[in-house]
Amino acid sequence: MAVAVISRYEDLSPKAYDEIIAALDLDANPPAGAVLHVAAEAERGLVITEIWRTEQTFRAFHDYRFVPALRLHGVEGRPEIEVAPLHNLYASEMDTVERMGAVSLPASYAGTALY
Questions:
Q1: Beta bridge partner(s), residue 77
Q2: What does pLDDT average to in each consecutive run of 10 residues of the chain (115 residues)?
Q3: Domain count of the chain?
């Protein structure tokens, strides 16, 4: 069953996040089961919202790839993670989503505009 995952990282800065995402090289080595990934700067740290095909595929990526990358970049805190069965996914501007998500790197790394 597809799941929505909301992760709150209080000690993850946008700069560290960008470095971690670049190091993971998701375009060349995408995680199995990942459907959608969105990161947003919050009042404290970063909030990552994702859609995964199953909770197991999320946990595998999180535990074996993302957490080790966090540790390598000095992020030691534990995030608050909420996993829930996906009820609906709606994207009214799919062409915009496709354009924004053409590469896994943040715009500052990819050299592209998001809009």
A1: none
A2: 97 92 91 94 93 98 97 93 95 77 60 48
A3: 1
Q: Which domain holds residue 90?
A: 3-109
Residue 115: inside a domain, yes or no?
A: no
Residue 53 in domain: yes
**Cα–Cα nearest to 49, from 62, 40, 60, 57:** 40
Q: In what order do the strands lie in the sheet with 46-52?
A: 34-41, 46-52, 3-9, 80-85
pTM check: above 0.90? no
Question: Within a domain: residue 98?
Answer: yes
Q: In this predicted structure, what is the pLDDT of residue 109? A: 56
- What DSSP element (H or E) covers 56? helix 55-61
